[in-house]
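Data card: per-record layout.
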Amino acid sequence: MNIKDAITIFSKTISGKKVIGYWISKKGFILNTKSIPEVDGFYGPEQFVVTVDGKVYGTNPLIEDFDILPYKKL
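The structure for this 74-residue chain is written out next.
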């Protein structure tokens, strides 16, 4: 899986979020997102994991400890 695949899977699963960057972890990709208020209407998690097997779930820096990983902006 590459970042384009991860973003495609994420976009099919979660709407109202724009991917603005990512981290690569052992689990897969951790996507940093920005809410699109006119679509979303509310603010929720802004970081999501897309696992190598295609699962998507919300996360945060405390759970995943990804602040030590290199960040890549899109």
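Known properties of this structure: The chain has one domain: 3-73. Residues 3-13 form the longest helix (11 residues).

See the next section for split statistics.
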